Amino acid sequence: NGNGNGNANEERSLTMKRLDGITSVATSLGALEVTPAVIHRAHRHQRRGRCDDTSAGGGEDVLSYTCTDAEAVDACVKFALDHRMLVEPACGAALAPIYSERLRGRLLEELSGMRQSSSGDGDRGSSAIVVEVCGGGGGRAGV
User: Fold this and answer.
1) Which of 1, 65, 93, 112 lies in disulfide reach of 72, CB 3.0 to 4.6 Å?
2) Which letter, b or e, does each residue of 69-108 get, where b requires 16 or more Cβ atoms within 10 Å of its Cβ?
3) Whole-number Å distance between alpha carbons of 73 and 89
4) Cα separations (Å) of 18 from 14, 26, 32, 35, 83?
5) What is the spatial distance between Cα 138 and Cα 129, in angstroms, rounded to a whole number?
6) Given this model, what pLDDT does residue 141 score?
7) 47 with 4: CB under 8 angstroms?
């Protein structure tokens, strides 16, 4: 609807789930559950990304991916080889869309589609992919 509350019913219908545990090697940034405020903020951010007038405080779409433990650890190894910095698997999960061919293809395809749909005049514009990298305390050579 036109009042900016298009996803309000969707947000109210969400059922919060709690995980029994974190089974991934990337445990340091894991949470068994999120607060309703996180869900609300994610929906608000996505709604702003769909606004035509980004000068009115519009955000950008949230792109979410799930990687395997192997992709996260592989990204850690590749990042260490590229930058001589050891990072933990939780950071490797953030790096996986850069280093994993499977995820990188999806990311670039989605970004390309977003750029094409956001510019009606054919100007593809420019974009940057930013990954925040942290060392963390969960990294070890044996993972």
Assistant:
1) 93
2) eebbbbbbebbeeeeeeebbbbbbbbbbbebbeebeeebe
3) 6
4) 13, 18, 6, 10, 37
5) 25
6) 59
7) yes
Q: pLDDT, tens digit, for every residue of 67-125?
A: 999 999 999 999 999 999 999 999 999 999 999 999 999 989 888 877 666 655 544 45
Structure tokens at 82: 């590229």
Residue 67 has a CB neighbour count (10 Å cut-off) of 23
Q: CA 108 to CA 103: how far, in whole Å?
A: 9
**Taking the CB of residue 40, how many other CB atoms lie within 10 A of it?**
14
Torsion over CA of 19, 134, 47 and 37, rounded to 10 degrees?
A: 50
Tally of CB atoms within 10 A around 58:
14
Amino acid at 74: D
